[in-house]
From TrEMBL, chain A:
CDD domains: fer2 (cd00207). This is (2Fe-2S)-binding protein. SUPFAM superfamilies: 2Fe-2S ferredoxin-like, CO dehydrogenase ISP C-domain like. Pathway: Alkaloid degradation; nicotine degradation. Keywords: 2Fe-2S, Iron, Iron-sulfur, Metal-binding, Oxidoreductase. It holds the Pfam family Fer2. Residues 1-77 form the 2Fe-2S ferredoxin-type domain. GO terms for molecular function: 2 iron, 2 sulfur cluster binding; metal ion binding; oxidoreductase activity. The keyword Oxidoreductase applies. It comes from the Bacteria. Coiled coil: none annotated. PANTHER family: OXIDOREDUCTASE WITH IRON-SULFUR SUBUNIT (PTHR44379).
Amino acid sequence: MQITVTVNGTEHVREVEPRLLLVHLLRDELGLTGTHWGCDTSNCGACVVWMDGTPVKSCTVLAAMASGRHVRTVEGLEGHAGLDQVQRSFIRCHGLQCGFCTPGMLMTARWLLDHNPDPSETEIREAIAGQTCRCTGYENIVRSIRHAARAEKSRDGAA
Amino acid sequence: MSALPGATDVPTPMGHGPMLRKEDARFVRGRGRFVDDVRLPGMLHGAILRSPHAHARILSVDVSAAESHPKVRAVITGETLAGRGLAWMPTLSHDVAAVLATDKVRYQGQEVVFVVAEDRYAARDALSLIEVEYEPLPPVIDARRALDPDAPVIRDDLDGRADNHVFDWESGDAAATDAVFASAERVSTCDLLYPRVHPAPLETCGIVADLDRITGKLTVHATTQAPHTHRMLYALIAGIPEHKIRIIAPDIGGGFGNKVGMYPGYLCSVVGSVLTGAPVKWTEDRSENLMSSSFARDYHMHGEIAATKDGRILGLRVRVLADHGAFNGTAQPSKFPAGFFHVFTGSYDVKAAHCRVTGVYTNKAPGGVAYACSFRITEASYLVERMVDVLSHDLGLDPAAVRMANLLRPEQFPYACATGWEYDSGDYPRTLTLALEMAGYDELRREQAERRAAYEATGRGSLMGIGISFFTEAVGAGPRRTMDILGLGMADGAELRVHPTGTAVLRVSCMSQGQGHETTFAQIVGEELGISPDDVELVQGDTDQTPFGLGTYGSRSTPVSGAAAVMVARKVRERARIVAAAMLEVAPEDLEWHKGRWQVAGDPAAGRTIAQIALAAHSDLDLPDGVEGHLDATCVYNPPNLTFPFGAYICVVDVDPGTGQATVRRFVAVDDCGVRINPMIVEGQVHGGLADGVGMALMELMAFDDDGNHLGASFMDYLLPTSMECPSWELGETVTPSPHHPIGAKGVGESATVGSPAAVVNAVLDAIGVRHADMPLTPAQVWRAVQGRPIRPDLAIR
């Protein structure tokens, strides 16, 4: 079947099997390997991307379901002005080690701060509760997201 | 407007100190390159048909329909491999393991057929076209029944094998220990299970195998923590000359020991590439990872601790039944079949100790040494720290006081323990004291008493518990005379080349899986040469580009390869001295090293930096006779001993006795890993290990039913800790340098995974006032323990 998916602002038309998963469309067909696959069962969240502005686990979304929609992946975070603040804060606060969960964590973090610019620690922990990290014990991921929130607040306040 | 806090607002140190990671720039952009990201022209995809049975005879395998699938390019069975002598492969523990089953399947999830197809979906489709006829056999699931006279014999492939016994191994002085126990005032005993768990790195195992038919060169991109060991294994198993094999470990999405061994999927992919002439990719799915690749632990332990009536520990005696699964495939120094379990006397000064470990085969996946265990020190540390609490419980003493009274004293180091280790350095009381202060231990005990009194008065509310563990690890294997893997001594090489403009490339044999080697190793060289770590590039994970060495596991990168990096940098520095002397027209002995320069003693203005020296070393400068130009060196580091990191952990939990739910409220961790090269990275390593401990203590479990069905075969059932189960960790540090490591560093990558489970378990049991219950302390297990009937968690509840 033919699908039309806009990924990070670029429209792609592809002939795909109806069963093709979105994560495999992104990785194998479009070469966007920043989105990772980790579990099959929607538990780990390494595959989180946005679809029409909402985080989804792309291992549990068919590519066909993304047809006509806008998908944003980790490759779409960096803008003309450089890295997104969540990317900068993850580096600054050592919010990643092996880097495998990182793209999914970043996409959730960006979504959280877009909807709640000043989240509490509990709100941050709840936001990433559907995602697994095996390296950081979550501590520095939480710190990274708080750091990003503070940085964006000080920037907005100064603007 | 003030400057935004950004990625570069921490200054780069000249050497050791906090430094942001070099590797992060690619990872935050999604530009890491993991094995499944590798895509080669014409690449095919592999998939594995696995056994649904734990134990069954294979009567027939019909692959004709699969072979007819239009997208299938090759179907490989055990018979295909047998024709090439590849149906079985040697393990890292002097056993053999099936690559693809020929005679029997011996665990659920064992590899039976490998299909190569044009895409990953077609490969999976073809698996459903394969017909395998099995004759089910009774399985051995309970390790404690494996040696029963009527137990089915699992390894009838081995000549003369009539039982499921793998090995007996002992350490310590049995007679001396028995004597201590015979005269002790108190002996406490306890049966403890360290259940089967899984390292479950977020990236599963995978490979892209690419045999060039013209050059005969095999290029393997694979998730391997030990590229050079794998190269030799491919040479030994597949008969490909070792110089025609190149192993590339790209970015690895977590290893934790899961990616040390050689798996059937790897070899099948190589054979698939040989047969098709195309590159073959195989990526495990999560269930395959949990069901078939290296599990961890599965130690059934009977512990005995002898003491005086006031709590002075005199001796430890342990019997262990080790479930090794269907093949003995543990990845550890070959002379130590129980790994380093014999460091089970932990942090205490005991008169005598003895352990006997018996390994058995069962109808479960092979493995056992993984999940940041430091070669079974997880089991040892859990045992001794649980036994100290059992003793404290039996004597009615405070577990902190019992530990403090029995800890080794600083003046006892180097300390020769009862089982033969020589602990290198430590100041244990200082570390425990700091942890108790950070936790506010006395105040916590008061709060606990109030909470318990309120609960007992009203029957409502929650209980709280405080758990302590004090661990000692032995990491950085190891001295080549006593430690080897398949005959390969555990020494690691390093090569350092300084370019004419003063930047450097360091090549090492170890391989990061997230530990930040690109940053830490650059800092090591930067510190030794007085150049910026930004000017040092690390090459790792490519056997064509790096010197030989055994890889990264058992917390050995810093103790062994890190030491190699120091030594090779010091070699370069000494060569630079000769060049500098020629430049300054003085004798090398007249120069002294000062803050990154060789300068004339007494005349600090006359000096040369490494960059100046490097350029001169490549120039037409007249060098003394016998001194070659350029500025580089190689070395092999053979560690004189292991390093012995240690730490004091205190966990505070709240337990709802009505539901059995335990919540970790606080966790204080004071680690002493000697000199910290990059404290930020060290703390990150500790954070991750503490989460492992919470996971194993409360959630993680691979149990089996009577038929050998794996009950933890997905993340729906194998529960990993999330952000909600983990508290905000409270870290502290003490620094006791290792006397034999060239910069005083010790390994730290596994410390928290080793030390933390006992603290969590001790805390939960302290809350509910129960002497012992086995991990994981799920709500159901805690509730049962409160009722006085905890279960064995490793077998399905009947």
